[in-house]
Amino acid sequence: MPDPTALLHSVFGFPGFRPGQQEIVEAVLAGRNTLAIMPTGGGKSLCYQLPALCRAGVTVVISPLIALMRDQVRALREAGVEAGALTSGNTDEETEGVFQALDDGRLKLLYMAPERLSAGGTAVLLRRIGVSLIAVDEAHCVSQWGHDFRPDYLKIGELRRALGVPLAAFTATADAETRAEIVTRLFDGAAPATFLRGFDRPNIHLAFGVKDQPRRQILDFAIARRGQSGIVYCATRSKTEGLAQALREAGLPAIHYHGGMEADDRRLAETRFQQEDGLIVAATVAFGMGIDKPDIRWVAHADLPKSIEAYYQEIGRAGRDGAPAETLTLYGPEDIRLRRTQIDEGLAPPDRKAADHARLNALLGLAEAVGCRRQVLLGYFGETSAPCGACDLCDAPPETFDATEAVRKALSAALRTGESFGAGHLIDILTGQPTDKIRQRGHDALPTFGVGRDLTKPVWQAVFRQMMGRDLMRPDPERHGALRMTDAARPILRGEATIHLRRDTVQAKARPVVKTLVAEEDAPLLSALKAKRRALAEAQRVPAYVIFPDRTLIEMAERRPETLDQMAQITGIGAKKLESYGATFLAVITGAPPDALHPARRRLAGRAEGTLYDRLLAVQADLLRGADGTEKPLTCSAALLARVAELRPRDLDALGRILGERRAERFGSAFLAALDDG
Asked: Fewest CB within 10 A of the end CB: N or C in the chain?
């Protein structure tokens, strides 16, 4: 079996595993059923791609979206890996090419959508081609109550049993309930080897903002990040179209995306976003799960997401390359009412509705946090951390106040009016506004009328919003959204508990642009490298990051390699990419093409064997005509020198078996001395 660490470098160009990857790769290589929960951008794909190269047979990868599969196949082929996809988006020629590669025994990874499992001949095909491993991406799609449920994922467990092969399941987010459902449906309840990687994405800056002219807030945020790729998630289809138009009118390249678009229009939008630098897409949550674009620099939510899991997954589209990224999530009382109503009016059973309210509560707790947001977010997933220094509340800690008395007054006003009114009417009562509605109902005679004049209307609006965020009050769908008290509020009302709230402001604050990805002196070179990458990508009609991701170009700009050996040390440059693009990008960096290398030497670039090859070549030059310079010229081929450098024989007999008697006699002792020095 090939060494996975060696392939990690030679194929993918990585100097080592990321934290948590090696244990998962070893479990999959050992043929164990495996479940890995890893953050988006944490390197999930490598954890099944690398074992697929080491194991005999074909690894079939079940993935939910065509765009994602096509991108991964292109990236693997660029790295020199035989991979293919059978999707409804294939041309006849593409499908024929995949079947031919399978018949020839060349294909190592076969991608397919879960819907293909319903086709009668799929299981027969997979048996015939010798599938030895099933990998399942986005495994949370098997959860019937999850927001990404795909019914055909329920057939994967049956396929595993039919083929009798191990299964490795991967997802970026799955709470305990979803994990249990994955184990039941994919592994028949038998616990797989489970790896729960940390959920922290420290390169992503977290920020929330209270809605106040939300379109202006989004525009300000996007304008401050001009030239960077971003996603704006919206709650409705119409809002995606309106916001994309507003972004374009502000001089930003932007498109919209939602499930109501024609299939061709959706594919065109996906292709543009993948291939164009600096493009913004305003989208519903229909966009994103299959987007494998590593250099998305920011994600904004124009409306509150449905749950904390949805929020985590959606912001996880940003910064997959590990470079700094930013988020902004806007919310307001109407968002909270909408999400509560969607849950209450849904068709789920009562226990599911309670769980959905709990998930929403967790997100609202994050939105209304008074301390480090990352601590709150990671706490939901069962992790602890120190204050992160990379969220809006760490940047500028909020001012808080003891709101116990204000909350009790608000609860009293709601109870004394039969829990039949919304926040606006209750605030008028508390601030003593003698409106017609209040007089008609006699609410100006209530003991609570005017007891809250010490706080302004905006402060009361913030108090009610935070009470809804803390789940102290909920809109009642049977009373047209009137606020009712929850059990969580009773200890405060009875004086058994206190509560502190933020002294809220609704001033929109757009953070400065994230720090530049490289130092000022390296920025011109990075721009030149990006231009070369863009030209190559357009010529090949592939996304730019398939050539090289931003992170690789940044490292080139900072380290400025001068030789192919030095270029091979850059993260993300494996042997195939070095051969395909190394000289081209070196020419951009140095201003001239590098010296040509023999293919046998180029294969050793960046490895200790390459340096050893050069030493052997120098020794050979010295002994070309023998030690005294009078003999007939004699040389070793580049392939022979490369073989000696790789095998490192330790005595003349071993060296003679490689070089032959005549060459061993001429070069043997000197070569062995060079090998000892190496």
From this structure: N
